[in-house]
Specification:
Structural class: alpha+beta
Distance between the termini: 21 Å
CATH topology of the largest domain: Jelly Rolls
CATH superfamily of the largest domain: Jelly Rolls
Largest sheet: 8 strands, antiparallel
Helix content: 10-25%
Number of helices: 6
Number of strands: 19
Mean pLDDT: 94
Low-confidence stretches: none
Order of helices and strands: EEHEHHEEHEEHEEEEEHEEEEEEE
Number of domains: 2
Length: 317
């Protein structure tokens, strides 16, 4: 096996903009792109390989064929042939809906799927940009439902100013929203389950309001762990949890990345600048905001850059 690049997939959103279209030189007739999925094994939206002899195979197919050689034996033991992560670029020209994601137990019970814990890494922000993460005070389920009914839920939410390079972990059960003017990389469990709580009473191009999921959402909201803050980074590490480990790599010229002790696939997400990945006699150019997959059987790779760049190094620990 070898480092794999995948074709991005684009999704039009009511709150999306034009930046993703320009970054990825997207010529399809999307009005506003809100998301580019750079790595996905979600059913119906599986990423397709662009490079090498495995080109035109999708990620789910590769997991079923290569199993632990691709995923890592420990990852395969835990998840089988299901690839456990999903990577997106998100541009919010307008506020996203206020929403919540179910945890693993609730998602399995209702949808036979993973829950959705996610990390946001800010790629770019307007000067007054903010995100919503958690409540700003202790709130009961009764108070919450009343606020949802009266369209006053915003009064109870914690708004956090953000800037480029900030990282925010959004655990399942945390009520949240991306504010307008944010562009971010999202690394999450491989799940597309979202319960929409409030959508500012806006309508789509057909004059229709989007569906809300009030009854589903209330059971998913974590009212005990109600407050959440920005991650305080320690050295190069951003986060370690049961779903993913994420490190920052500041690349200047040449860097050798040792992978032998991970027993996991590795994702390398370019968040600033371009870089070159070398393995054996293969050279792969990774452009800004692209993601490559390093199979678990690869134990060492070399990274090079002609100018300072920044990479998120992601694996399952």
């Amino acid at each position: 096996m070898y480092p794999l690049k995948f074709a991005p997939q684009f999704f039009e959103k009511i709150w999306g903009g034009q930046k993703i279209k320009k970054i990825f030189s997207q010529t399809e007739k999307f009005e506003n792109i809100g998301e580019a999925w750079t790595l996905s094994a979600v059913l119906g939206n599986e990423s397709v390989v662009e490079n090498g002899f495995l080109a035109e195979n999708n990620l789910a197919e590769l997991c079923e064929v290569y199993l632990g050689d691709l995923l890592g034996e420990a990852v395969f033991e835990q998840y089988g042939s299901d690839f456990p992560l999903l990577v997106k670029i998100i541009e919010a020209r307008e506020n996203l809906s206020i929403q919540v994601h179910p945890n693993d137990e609730l998602a399995a019970e209702r949808h036979n799927a993973f829950g959705k814990n996610e990390l946001w890494y800010m790629l770019d922000c307007e000067p007054d940009a903010y995100i919503i993460a958690g409540f700003n005070r202790k709130i009961s389920e009764k108070e919450y439902l009343k606020a949802v009914k009266n369209n006053t839920i915003e009064d109870y939410l914690q708004k956090i100013p953000v800037k480029k390079g900030d990282a925010i972990f959004i655990p399942a059960g945390c009520i949240h929203a991306i504010g307008k003017g944010c562009m971010l990389l999202e690394i999450q469990q491989s799940s597309d389950i979202t319960y929409r709580i409030y959508d500012y009473n806006r309508t789509d191009k057909n004059g229709e309001k989007r569906e809300l999921h009030t009854e589903l959402a209330v059971d998913a909201v974590d009212f005990d762990n109600w407050k959440h803050n920005l991650i305080n980074k320690i050295d190069y590490n951003i986060i370690i949890n049961e779903y993913f480990t994420i490190n920052e790599i500041y690349l200047d010229k040449n860097y050798n990345l040792e992978l032998e002790n991970r027993n996991s696939f590795t994702l390398l997400c370019s968040v600033e600048g371009d870089f070159e990945c070398r393995y054996n006699d293969k050279k792969i150019i990774v452009k800004k905001y692209e993601t490559i997959l390093i199979p678990a059987e690869i134990h060492s790779i070399n990274l090079l850059s002609n100018a300072p760049s920044k990479i998120l190094d992601v694996f399952v620990s």
